[in-house]
Write a structure and sequence with these properties.
Keywords: Membrane, Transmembrane, Transmembrane helix. The chain has 4 domains: 47 residues, no CATH class; 174 residues, no CATH class; 157 residues, no CATH class; 285 residues, no CATH class. 28% of the residues lie in helices and 21% in strands. A hairpin with a 2-residue loop joins strand 14 and strand 15. Helix 3 runs parallel beside helix 12, helix 6 packs antiparallel against helix 12 and helix 7 crosses helix 11. The radius of gyration is 52 Å and the shape is elongated. The relative contact order is 0.14. The N terminus and C terminus are likely disordered.
């Protein structure tokens, strides 16, 4: 509320008389600000809590589980928070502006309170005084808050690759036993048997079904043990020595791979023998190792790796860890002279391995008394020879390098792996053709996934900054209860506060919505020094008194003069017992359909309604139903405050007939008076003081 000093500025109703209450009472909304502020504050707190919930729930969670990524949600929440913060600041600035003018202030301070949130006016606003400085500093801090909230919230969440290992359920179609005839007959191998052998030798890719539970998800690999057709094996190594430089050792076998199928027992057995020089001393005495292995058909737990739909055996798994499920025999592996009889899995493996890997190398003399080897048509002795023996960084003695550089890597483990791989490929091929061979197994998925991680330091800073923004905006609302009505910085409210003449027809209404309901339908336009209001042109420049513009740009210099041939008549549309405005003025010759007016911007092209039937009354309120005693005559047109009778010869407006219950006394003249505004009248009216004597409340 205004203090005693500011109240003294109010004009008394009459000399020695008290104001009489009017039946028209202005509408007030004292609870609109707290309800609106509480709603905005609730939404802002909700945005802060939602930000915390998103960041906490996304911590250590995979990105694929979020249909809407946390960064998108955070961007939305921060944007909503900033919109709400702007609304709260707008309300706070309006409250500060009205509290300042209520307590008494200057126009400059009011201007800078309104524009304090503009960085261009920051320094002038700080210098303007207490209220303007407070608004400017808070607006500057809120600018920093707005710039920081988004980046801090985004920095609080990060997406990183996470190494993971987890168990998943998968399916595969694979056979536990290889049926007779898969590899062919006694006389020859068929296409599918040959394909399995070729795939093992050439390391061709295997594929499983391209279905959800068959495919390994994501970009990782699935490792598992699956029971499938294979071989049970066992090997026994023996060693012997040979003097490589002894002439009697020439033509001795130094490397060989042989296979043999034995049907002497009830269970057919395939034997494999590998022979190779495994080491050599300085005197060229070599150690010859012989591995004797036997194979029988069996169901084996194969270690496999699946990547998407590609399947392969894990060759890095030691053979010693291979788990045997069960042994089995097949009638096709029995001895038979029938060349068209389908062969079993053991005979198929024997045919493929023997024809592919059987090889032999013997010792021969080389150049300059050195020794070397001669291989048969097979390439395997050359592929398994150990070339590191003669490398420059080898620790082998020079005598061995010069005379007997012969040593081989063991082919035994590779041959066993080939046998298992051929059987596995055959089992997978058989299973892919039979849906009844579907198996379910548990695999270990290993790979990288995108996971969300929350930085709790940035989370705390972001929440603190958002809370600070709310506190700063709320500080602008201090003292809103003094106003006892809803306030805004609408031109309708501020213009009414400053006594704009065209807003006087709104009566005692002070809130923008109420003023808009009363006179919101009235048309206005402004250009340079002229104001067009409700069809009448006024000169508003400070260099001349208000006047109505004549046709062809001439004006009546002394007062408001009605244009030629137009007599002032009351508006036929009224509401709430008061005038809505002045009647329209046509400029120049009368036109029955398109009356016009002109000002410095040119002749108006707006078409003003000629009568009440043509006028758009959809925006005009219904006539006020409340009665007033001693009401003002509705037939008297309302004039701007600065109007006074003209002394020219043009037709003049009738004098204003004041209601008997309301009288506006002239303000006492202080300083230099304006023409037509009551200058030169005697001052010293009781209850008033000069404007220069106003002391601003809270000014610094």
């Amino acid at each position: 509320m205004a203090d005693s000093s500011s109240r003294s500025l109010l004009q008394p109703y009459s000399d020695g008389s008290t104001a009489k209450q009017s039946a028209w009472i202005s509408k007030k909304s004292p609870w609109k600000i707290p309800v609106l502020v509480l709603s905005i504050l609730t939404l802002q707190i909700g945005c802060i809590l939602a930000t915390v919930i998103v960041l906490l729930s996304s911590h250590k969670d995979k990105a694929s589980s979020w249909k809407i990524q946390p960064s998108v949600l955070l961007a939305f929440l921060c944007g909503l928070y900033l919109v709400l913060l702007g609304s709260l600041v707008s309300i706070g600035i309006a409250v500060t502006w009205w509290r300042s003018i209520t307590h008494g202030t200057t126009l400059r301070r009011l201007h800078h309170i309104h524009s304090g949130s503009n960085l261009l006016d920051l320094i002038p606003a700080i210098r303007a005084g207490h209220d303007a400085r407070r608004v400017a500093l808070i607006a500057f801090l809120l600018l920093l808050v707005k710039l920081a909230v988004g980046p801090l919230a985004q920095q609080a969440t990060q997406v990183k690759d996470q190494e993971l290992a987890k168990r998943i359920n998968m399916d595969i179609q694979i056979a536990g036993e290889i049926p007779d005839g898969y590899f062919g007959t006694q006389s020859s191998l068929n296409a599918q048997g040959t394909h399995a052998i070729q795939g093992a030798l050439l390391n061709q890719s295997l594929v499983t079904l391209d279905q959800p539970k068959y495919r390994c998800p994501g970009n990782g690999t699935c490792e598992a043990l699956v029971p499938a057709a294979g071989v049970n094996f066992g090997c026994t190594p023996t060693q012997d020595t040979i003097d490589l430089v002894d002439p009697e050792s020439i033509n001795s076998t130094v490397f060989s791979i042989t296979f043999e199928l034995n049907n002497d027992s009830d269970v057919p057995i395939m034997f494999m023998t590998t022979k190779y020089i495994s080491s050599i001393d300085e005197d060229c005495v070599a150690t010859v190792t012989t591995d004797s292995c036997n194979f029988i058909p069996a169901t084996v737990w194969h270690p496999i790796i699946i990547q998407e739909t590609t399947v392969s055996r894990d060759l890095q798994t030691p053979l010693s860890s291979i788990i045997i499920g069960k042994n089995y025999t097949s009638p096709g592996d029995a001895n038979s002279d029938d060349q068209s009889r389908p062969i079993g899995p053991l005979k198929g493996l024997y045919a493929g391995l023997d024809r592919t890997f059987a090889s032999k190398a013997v010792l021969v003399k080389g150049a300059q008394d050195s020794i070397t080897f001669r291989a048969d048509a097979s390439q395997w002795p050359l592929l398994y020879v150990d070339t590191t023996l003669t490398s420059s960084n080898s620790s082998t003695s020079q005598n061995v390098k010069d005379k007997c550089p012969l040593r081989w890597k063991s082919p035994t483990d590779d041959l066993i792996q080939y046998a298992l791989d051929i059987a596995f490929r055959a089992a997978l091929d058989v299973g892919g053709q039979n849906d009844n061979l579907k198996q379910n197994f548990t695999a270990v998925w290993r790979g990288k996934e995108l996971w969300h991680f929350t930085d709790f330091t940035f989370l705390g800073i972001a929440v603190g900054v958002m809370g600070l923004g709310v506190a700063l905006a709320m500080s602008l609302l201090w003292g809103w209860g003094e106003l006892k009505r809803h306030v805004t910085l609408s031109p309708l409210e501020t213009g009414k506060a400053f006594g704009a003449p065209i807003l006087l027809t709104a009566g005692p209404e002070r809130e923008a919505n109420s003023i808009n309901k009363e006179i919101g339908h009235e048309r206005v336009a402004h250009g340079d020094d002229e104001l067009v209001w409700n069809g009448t042109v006024y000169a508003t420049g400070m260099s001349q008194p208000p006047s109505i513009r004549r046709r062809y740009g001439s004006t009546s210099p002394q007062g408001l003069i009605v244009a030629d041939d137009i007599s002032p008549t009351p508006s036929r549309t009224s509401g709430r017992g008061h005038r809505r405005g002045m009647s329209s003025v046509s400029s120049g010759p009368k036109s029955p359909s398109t009356p016009s007016f002109e000002h410095t911007l040119g002749v108006s092209t707006m078409r003003w309604p000629d009568d009440e039937d043509e006028a758009d009354i959809s925006y005009r309120p219904a006539p006020h139903s409340r009665s007033r005693s001693n009401s003002i005559d509705d037939r008297i047109p309302m004039l701007p405050m600065g109007a006074r009778p003209s002394m020219s010869s043009s037709p003049q407006l009738p004098p204003i007939q004041h209601a008997p219950t309301i009288r506006i006394d002239p303000v006492s003249g202080v300083g230099r008076g304006r023409r037509g505004s009551g200058a030169g009248m005697p001052g010293g009216a009781s209850g008033k003081r000069p404007l220069s004597a106003i002391s601003e409340r809270g000014s610094l």
